[in-house]
Amino acid sequence: MQLASSSAGDLASRRCSPRWARMELQESAVAASRMSASPQVRYQPRSPAVMAEVERLLAGRTRDIRLRGELGRLFQERSWSRTAKIIRAWMIWVTLLDVLTLGLNAILLPKAVALSMLPPACLLPPAALATAFIWRKPRGVWLQRVSLLTGLFLILLSVALVGVSAGGEFYERHLNIMLFVAITAIIIFAIPLAWTMTVASFALGLYLIFQLQNPGLERGSAVAGTLFFASGIIATVVARRTITILAQKTFLLELRDMRRVAELADANARLERLAKTDPLTGIANRRWMMETLNRLWSSGAERRPGTAMLMCDIDDFKSLNDRLGHAEGDRCLVKVAGIIQSSVRRNRDHVARYGGEEFLVVLPGANEEAAVATAERIRASVEAASLPNPASRVAPYVTLSIGVAAQAPGEEIVAPEKLQNQADAALYLAKQAGRNRVVLYQPDLPTV
């Protein structure tokens, strides 16, 4: 007998938890879906080690921020789209300006000068457009680096060679234009520091080489001019680095804020679940059942062919508490809750502890016959579990009385409160008739 009780209780416990776990998962999914509305949520790291690194970097000095490993990858993923758009736009504008300049030169300059500028100028458009094409979508880091640096080198070389080919006043003017082009790229391209320094080296190296070959300029003047422009480019690189660090700090703050929002949402979801869960049995409580009834009725569930309620009450539960103690009474409630939960349709029906030793079961889409069959299955399962209740007036084990109320197809819509009162009235009659039985509400019975 005791073995049968233990087996039934264990089965009930195993069958009781999955449905409630599914409700928790659904509520968590709702909270997650709200958060996922933000496009930045997918960049939120899950690793505690990464978040610990975020806190460490934010606790230190801003200028010491360095993103490595997973954080660096996340930052690149987040900023790639914007950086790629800027690079593509810059490349296209440089191409348009180059073509426009060639056209104006052909109109305004002597034919010989304009023709001398044409070959080196034709180097720029394909280099810029090829770079823009490669940066249309994410590719390997090495390909992005090689394409960008190669493209920028060819662009800078093209601008410099235009002046060198034309000679005269155009020589130094185009070298200065080349430096200006490099500075704009350094400032607006949010690329790694090593890439930025490579671009700066390209510009200064080309400037120095061509100035040393400038027939109208002494070597000392060429070196002095290069050093002068180097100071400006170095300052530009430092400014770019500062902008990058501030962007990385903003990214770290966003990650920390998203984590805190996620923790707060999770805590709120847990509190919400606790507010809807009976702490003893682990199934839904009365509040959750009332919300479920309102949701079902407001969604038109009462218009389906048949809806039923079962009001279940443990017979002589107070006597069990008095004789065996509250610990055994609590154990009885947990076992009975599990048995009821395991006896209904897990994907459709709803079970809640309604108060004390009472349980309310809602059977959407069930007619009288199905509702009575379910109630009888619950009653028989509780009886078969043979949970001890030596003080019961019915039997030496726990029994259950159940009142059933069902809305038949075609009847006038019954409010959930009225259907519940009908189930209560049927439960009262079950108690009066000797307990441990199922009574179906009939229209001629008075409500309680």
Q: How does this model look, in words?
A:
The structure is a single chain. The chain has 448 residues and is α+β, with helices and mostly antiparallel strands. Helices cover 68% and strands 7% of the residues. It is built from 14 helices and five strands. It has a five-stranded mixed beta sheet, with helices on both faces. A hairpin with a 2-residue loop joins strand 2 and strand 3. It is rod-shaped, with a radius of gyration of 39 Å. It starts with a helix and ends in an 8-residue tail after the last strand. The N terminus is likely disordered.
Percent range for β-strand residues = 5-15%
Number of strands: 5
Mean pLDDT: 86
Task: Give the end-to-end Cα distance, rounded to a whole number of Å.
Answer: 37 Å
- The number of helical segments is 14
Number of domains: 2
Q: Sketch the topology as an H/E string, one letter per element.
A: HHHHHHHHHHEHHEEHEHE
Could you name the ranges where pLDDT drops below 50 across 5 or more consecutive residues? 1-41
